[in-house]
Amino acid sequence: MGMEDFWFNAIYSVAPTLGVGLIFWFIMRAIIRSDRTERKAYARIEAEERAKEAATVSEHR
């Protein structure tokens, strides 16, 4: 068994763990980014609704 075989086996043994780790990282990044985008959109809609409500209240005075 040569040194080449050792390094090939070492890399071959670690590759599945690295692959699963990368997939997990991409999934978590996508979830966090979509959550951030959704929160921004929700905050914008909430601000619009508050502005409409404030305008309606000021009209009735």
Question: Which terms would index this structure?
Answer:
61 residues
What does this protein structure show overall?
The chain is an all-alpha fold and 61 residues long. Helices cover 93% and strands 0% of the residues. It contains 1 helix and no strands. It has one helix at residues 3-59. The longest helix has 57 residues, at 3-59. The protein is rod-shaped and about 90 Å long.
List the helices and strands and how they pair.
Elements: H1 3-59
Distance from N terminus to C terminus (CA atoms, Å) equals 90 Å
The average pLDDT score comes to: 92
Q: Structural class from helices and strands?
A: mainly alpha
Question: Could you estimate the helical fraction of the residues in percent?
Answer: over 70%
Range of strand content: under 5%
- SSE sequence, one letter per element: H
Query: Major beta sheet, specifics?
Result: none
Number of contiguous helices: 1
Shape: rod-shaped
Uncertain regions: pLDDT < 50 for 5+ in a row?
A: none
Question: What Rg, in angstroms, do the CA atoms define?
Answer: 26 Å
- Total strands: the figure is 0
Briefly summarize what is shown.
This protein is an all-alpha fold. The chain has one helix and no strands.
